[in-house]
Specification:
The protein is mainly beta and 163 residues long. The chain has a domain at 21-61 and 89-159: Beta Barrel (Lipocalin), CATH 2.40.128. It is 9% helix and 50% strand. It is built from one helix and eight strands; from the N terminus they run αββββββββ. The protein has one helix at 2-16, and strands at 30-36, 41-47, 52-65, 85-99, 111-120, 128-137, 140-147, 150-159. Strands 1-2-3-4-5-6-7-8 form an eight-stranded antiparallel β-barrel.
Length: 163
């Protein structure tokens, strides 16, 4: 008798379980870019109950830092000598977003928002208000961020599957 009750409870929980691909939950996934104008990017809509934040991080390339022309290069051990270095260049933006209308994450519906960037790795957009649009087409997030009329971020990405 107990086995039958446990089986019914198990079947009831399976029938009432939510699908993780429900479009109401889409913004809270972490997204990895397939194509991007800022290099390989990671996008995360962070829902903090009473406000939402958008985090975008990417590595767009490297910068060569040349050694100083008078740097010492005559040590016997080669690792002690000055040498040119390469450093990765990052784009990392974080800020609160405010949706300009109701969110509808069904296929190809555009959701617009204003993004108040309060953290910027490169200090280019710090304390600026940017506008953005996001839509899901065939399970891919299409995200565009604009500074007035100039598109600064254009990303198509897929959601990261939980492990």
């Amino acid at each position: 008798m107990i086995k039958i009750i446990i089986t019914f409870i198990y079947l009831a929980t399976l029938l009432n379980a939510e699908d993780k691909s429900d479009y109401k939950n889409i913004p809270h996934y972490v997204w990895d870019s397939d194509s991007s104008n800022i290099g390989p990017a990671e996008i995360w809509f962070q829902d903090w109950t009473d406000y939402m934040r958008l985090f975008i991080k990417s590595t767009s390339g490297t910068v060569l830092i040349e050694k100083h022309p008078y740097a010492k290069t005559d040590f016997e051990k080669n690792y002690s000598n000055a040498k040119d270095l390469t450093r990765p260049t990052f784009t990392q933006l974080l800020g609160n977003i405010e949706w300009t209308g109701e969110q509808d994450w069904s296929d190809s519906k555009i959701n617009t928002f204003n993004w108040a960037v309060d953290r910027d790795q490169n200090w280019t957009y710090k304390d600026k208000l940017l506008s953005g649009s996001a839509k899901v087409v065939n399970d891919k997030l299409h995200l565009k961020i604009k500074d007035y009329d100039t598109i600064i971020i254009d990303v198509i990405s897929r959601y990261r599957k939980y492990k």
